[in-house]
Amino acid sequence: TTQGEGLLSVPATNASRKLPQTIIMGVRKGGTRALLEMLNLHPHITVAKTEMHFFDWDENYQQGLGWYRQQMPLSLPDQITVEKTPGYFTSARAPERIQAMNSSLRLLLIVRDPAERVISDYTQVLHNRRQQNKSFQPVEQILIRDGEVNTNYKAIQRSLYHLHMANWLQRFPLGQIHIVDGDLLIRDPLPELRRAERFLHLPPRIQASNFYFNHTKGFFCLRAEGHERCLDDSKGRRHPSVSARALSQLCTYFEGHNDSFFKMVGRSFSWCR
Ligand code: A3P
């Protein structure tokens, strides 16, 4: 007998639904979908296709771990299950809830230049509001209010990585959290995936031949078993232009926050350069 979910050749007796051993917890617009899809190229990885929002949405969490496990894909005994929900990173409850499920779980966090991330976040919300025929404000009016960086803007708060990271480090040792550089994943995915494989104790199976640069999309796309595909149109959107002045203001604002994050994780990134 066989079962669905893309595992058509898997005997039903061997396959089971497991709680994730790894979670991509954020950051929103950091490249979480690209990371998940790229990890899925690994034969020892199986992924939950949609964002579960189990640990950050109370109505889901109340369904219990049995429900959560049922949402997971079938996996073989030598496969690990990965789930991604970028909302976990900024959720106050997610760290303790994930720790309660599995205190030795390995967490993946993909980060990206915080200023770029804000604009990407804005672009996504703008797209959604346009689709719903809702009004929207031009990007600079949201970013800068009365000449100052608008610190009330949610997207800016989500880019204060150290504030959110502090909550995770209260529950998980730094060694259990692997940080993927989202800017590098865009430019050259393989080395970042190698590092992720090592962190997950998986043999290196993702290959350079799994990627090709698609000039139309302007991003790397995936190739597996002779089949080529790019991430969908919602990934790699064109951003609205932001003046050099506003961008520089944003970067100055983030500088101190970024330094706090670098100290916290013992690593620095070349953001805002
Ligand atoms: P933009 O659409 O702003 O460019 P997430 O999946 O967390 O929402 O992140 C979306 C971001 O992933 C995109 O933001 C894009 O920059 C980035 N990304 C990284 N690798 C990509 C790839 N190979 N194809 C498309 N987008 C990719």
From TrEMBL:
What species was this sequence derived from? Callorhinchus milii
Question: Which keywords has UniProt assigned to this entry?
Answer: Disulfide bond, Glycoprotein, Golgi apparatus, Signal, Transferase
The catalytic activity, as recorded, is: alpha-D-glucosaminyl-[heparan sulfate](n) + 3'-phosphoadenylyl sulfate = 3-sulfo-alpha-D-glucosaminyl-[heparan sulfate](n) + adenosine 3',5'-bisphosphate + H(+)
The name this protein goes by in its record:
Sulfotransferase
Per UniProt, 3'-phosphoadenylyl sulfate binds at: K29, G30, G31, T32, R33, R112, S120, K235, G236, R237, R238, H239
Record-listed E.C. numbers: 2.8.2.-
Family as reported in the entry's similarity comment: Belongs to the sulfotransferase 1 family.
Listed under GO cellular component are: Golgi lumen
Q: Where in the cell is it found?
A: Golgi apparatus lumen
Q: What portion of the full-length protein is represented by this chain?
A: 34 to 306 of 331
